[in-house]
Design a protein that fits this description.
With about 210 residues, this protein is α/β, with parallel strands linked by helices. The chain is about 55% helix and about 10% strand. It has a five-stranded mixed β-sheet. The longest helix has 27 residues. It is globular, with a radius of gyration of 22 Å. About 10% of the residues have low confidence.
Length: about 210
């Protein structure tokens, strides 16, 4: 199908929030937007009906985001409709497309694997097969996700904000810590962070 006959859809009808990726390079997105301003989009995105006249983007979320940056929500982009895909099939295609076009983080891969595993009712062999991973790679990615969640939980303050520890004031009858005590606490925190990083590297490389 050539560019003239390829169906197009306005960007305002597309939802990219369902895509499992969270990290996008600002520089890469701006560069793609400039390219789209010059030559447009020739490779169709892949979408799936989401109800209420909206569509979920399965493959091509970067092209959608960059197109919005370049032309706004009323601009139209070529698409392929894949309503034949179930949730697991859509996630599989999304993971494959992202790995081919731009590297994802290990945590993003692990989160996608965990989601796909749930869709496949805990079938690890089928999950690994669909992702193109060995069973041991799947196990390492899931272990990495668990380790990351534990680290976030350990560092969460009362508000539940991951990675942010609420400051603690001195308790009743207590004294402010001495300079030596503060130095020792800081050293312990640095050691804990190094241990966390070493654990994550081991899970990725093991």
């Amino acid at each position: 199908m050539d560019q003239q006959t390829q169906p197009k859809i306005a960007l305002k009808f597309l939802d990219i929030k369902s895509n499992y990726r969270r990290r996008r390079s600002k520089e890469s997105l701006e560069s793609l937007a400039e390219n789209i301003k010059e030559i447009g989009v020739f490779t169709p995105i892949v979408i799936r009906s989401a109800g209420n006249g909206m569509f979920s983007v399965i493959a091509g979320s970067r092209r959608v985001a960059a197109s919005r940056l370049a032309h706004g929500d009323d601009w139209e982009i070529p698409y392929i409709l894949r309503d034949d895909l179930d949730e697991a099939g859509a996630l599989h295609l999304s993971v494959t497309e992202n790995k081919e076009r731009e590297d994802t983080t290990a945590v993003e891969d692990a989160e996608a694997a965990e989601k796909l595993l749930g869709m496949l009712k805990g079938d690890r062999a089928e999950t690994a097969r669909r992702l193109g991973w060995s069973p041991s790679t799947l196990s390492r990615r899931l272990a990495l996700l668990n380790a990351t969640q534990e680290t976030r939980k350990d560092r969460a303050g009362p508000s539940g904000d991951p990675g942010r520890v609420a400051p603690r004031g001195p308790g009743k009858g207590s004294r402010e810590p001495t300079g030596h005590q503060r130095t020792r606490c800081q050293a312990q925190g640095a050691c804990r962070r190094r241990a966390d990083e070493a654990r994550r590297r081991h899970l990725l490389e093991g």
